[in-house]
């Protein structure tokens, strides 16, 4: 049986992977709901209100699963990783508390109005609730990423007499640690792209069945605009984060690039290959000479150090980091390709007729989830063998538990997660399988709602504008 440390790492990786896909969707979906409601209030077109009602049901389910999976994950800090919690608690604890006090309370305070109040409060008050929920998701990302970024690039701390990390004279140095701004931008944009491709995939699915469905046309058009505009921005943001990582976590970049050996006169960009850590080389490598130095140093002859400059016991697992990074980057460029394809279709006025574009959008629908998980694996596995980079090793962070106890809890998590969240995902897919339909909407002029609870619905309002 694997030792307790390895099992604890598997358990945290499993639970955080499940959890991460839900916030990455809710962050983007909350902002999308804000846009839909704003467009409805501005234009009065019923199609936007109908799409809001369509996606707010999905948001409610995803938000609930995200909260549940996040609570379960946080308990592991006190069980499997109690030593880590003790050492870093004075720094990490307040950041996590700020997330609850500022973001979670804000979301909880307005979520009920957003989900159930569209026919019970004025449209503008309801829009305020939607904005507050969207803002709450962004604030939550701010604090969580600040805490995680501090673990990647610790700053503003001092070591206490008992070995704890204590806050220094300024919390600003802790919160806005060197990698935080880059990681916040990269992660939030990734959430927007994740949502865009889910929305685009659902819209494409219904367009294949009925090209005249106004809601499907509108959501597909909006999603493809996001893909075409935001995917290039994400690639640039990722490049900036890579340069920041090279400065503060060079071993991670060496593993991402597969550079076992140093290259004093320009390093190649290895596109594909099979890393062999035992022989310190990448077998069957397909590479572009000096391209890695051009990207990372902006100089084709710029020197790049390799893992031969890092002691063996401080090197991350190259194979995992190498392939996770390529999955993330490959999907990023695939998103860009689909966005450019949609621009061509739009230019030729065939956005709703090109069947292969719609099929490609369906295939790319879950790509955002895969990309964010691959990015997370790159980030976290590349930080190894540390929990707090360069200061606290993973082996020194785990609780003194026996392997059978951790294995039993891991098995329980796998069974329960697959059953509960599997049912949740099935229900979400069932909601998405239904095409968006026009139905009753509130009056966007700011008057009273068309109907109140318990009163017979008013006649349906169908949007008339073309997408």
Share of β-strand residues: 5-15%
- What integer is the average pLDDT? 87
Q: What's the Cα radius of gyration?
A: 24 Å
Biggest β-sheet: strands ordered side by side in the sheet = 1-2
Low-confidence stretches: 446-467
Q: What does the overall shape look like? A: globular
Please sum up the structure shown.
By secondary structure, the chain is mainly alpha-helical.
Describe it for me?
This protein is mainly alpha-helical. It has one domain (4-262, 305-433). It is built from 13 helices and six strands. It has helices at 4-43, 46-75, 82-116, 123-152, 171-175, 180-209, 214-248, 250-257, 291-297, 318-347, 355-363, 367-383, 403-433, and strands at 157-159, 165-167, 269-276, 281-288, 386-388, 392-393. The strands form three sheets. Strands 1-2 form a two-stranded antiparallel ribbon. Strands 3-4 form a two-stranded antiparallel ribbon. Strand 5 and strand 6 form a beta hairpin. Helix 4 crosses helix 6 and helix 7 (214-248) runs antiparallel to helix 10. The longest helix is centred in the N-terminal third of the chain and has 40 residues, at 4-43. The chain is globular, with a radius of gyration of 24 Å. The model is unreliable at 446-467 (pLDDT under 50).
